[in-house]
Amino acid sequence: KGEGHVEGEKVENPDTGLYYDEYLRQVIDVLETDKHFREKLQTADIEEIKSGKLSRELDLVSHHVRTRLDELKRQEVARLRMLIKAKMDSVQDTGIDHQALLKQFEHLNHQNPDKFEPKDLDMLIKAVSARYK
Asked: Which residues does the UniProt record annotate as the domain NUCB1-like N-terminal (predicted)?
């Protein structure tokens, strides 16, 4: 009662309701570990973020951050593939186009499942923005 937040304490964010909410949170957490990117994020206005200008800053983050983002993307692609397989198994339809199914996941670039690139950050931002228009 009446207690403020302890410095360094993480504040819980409400669930966005997005099926890729965990991926979104992990990407943000990793990006915020990079001092340069965190500063750009804090000073950017909403239009800079939505336009993709902020995504270009991804080229300037540390190698460690990029490696972690690549790992997160591979995990997300694996998760989506499991969802597709489960959907296929439940329907037992052998004529499913895997690429068409992957295209419905607009929060990442499915053409390059191994590397997190500025395009991935841009697609993630645009997918979240479209959800909250």
From this structure: 7-128
pLDDT along the chain (133 residues), means of 10: 43 68 93 93 88 89 95 93 78 61 71 86 86 70
Interacting residues of 113 by C-beta distance below 8 A, sequence separation 6+: 73, 74, 77
Long-range pairs, 15-24, Cβ under 8 A, ≥24: 16/128, 16/131, 18/107, 18/127, 18/128, 18/131, 20/76, 20/105, 20/107, 20/124, 20/127, 23/72, 23/75, 23/76, 23/79, 23/107, 23/108, 23/124, 24/107, 24/124, 24/128
- For the stretch 76-104, pLDDT in tens is 999 988 888 877 776 665 566 656 666 66
| pTM exceeds cut of 0.90 | no
